[in-house]
Design brief:
Elements (H helix, E strand, L loop, with lengths): L1 H8 L5 H13 L5 H18 L2 E6 L11 E4 L6 H8 L5 E5 L8 H8 L2 E3 L4 H16 L4 E2 L22 H6 L3 E7 L3 H4 L6 E7 L5 H4 L4 H16 L4
Parallel strand pairs: 1-7, 2-5, 2-6, 3-4, 3-5
Antiparallel strand pairs: 6-7
Length: 235
Amino acid sequence: MKRIALMVIRHLLLIPVWFPKMLIMARSDKYTWKEKYDFLRVITKSVNRAGRVKIDAHGMENLPEQSGYLLYPNHQGLFDVLAVLEANPTPFSVVMKKEVKDIFFLKQVFQMMGAIPIDREDIRQSMQVILQVAKEVESGRNFLIFAEGTRSRKGNETNAFKGGSFKCAMRAKAPIVPVVLVDSYRPFDVNTIRRVTVHVHFLPPMYYDEYKSMKSTEIAEEVRSRIDAVMKQYT
């Protein structure tokens, strides 16, 4: 990937400084989630600029003032988390596929975010993740979950959102924040280093009173519908 190579080359002098600090912070309890997250944002912003990627963020005022909410973006590519990380100043964690939890560098990033791996083929483990995320959200942490399960690979189009992804929010009675990612597939999934702008829209949240009488599949359809409505503005 040309853009990743460009990001690395432009940070050859900083990587030996950043990575040891990441290792220390990822393994230490003396740093708060906010301190770890802020450090990751510093790296992310620098890396994105070096890679000629601009993040155009909208709707930050829609993020709940109190933590304990879940972000549900559409899933376009490997760059998605970096886009939301730069756009959102408030710490959040991620529910990630177990296949990526041991990848070098990503492992340290996810450790710093307190990410939770999920095995989508293991129903019992998936249920444990739902319970764990709900408990952590109730305690005031924020999480990002890709309700499509896997990236769409269709550019600015979404796949069906899975109802089970919303059971964490339902159990925690937490705000659901739909997040629209536009052109987030371009930085890493298109083999070019041309300048690209990734648009991130935080939509008004769905609070528990709004969705408490809905089934998880109905919530999934509603969130996808809200995301698609904004996505159409770019097509």
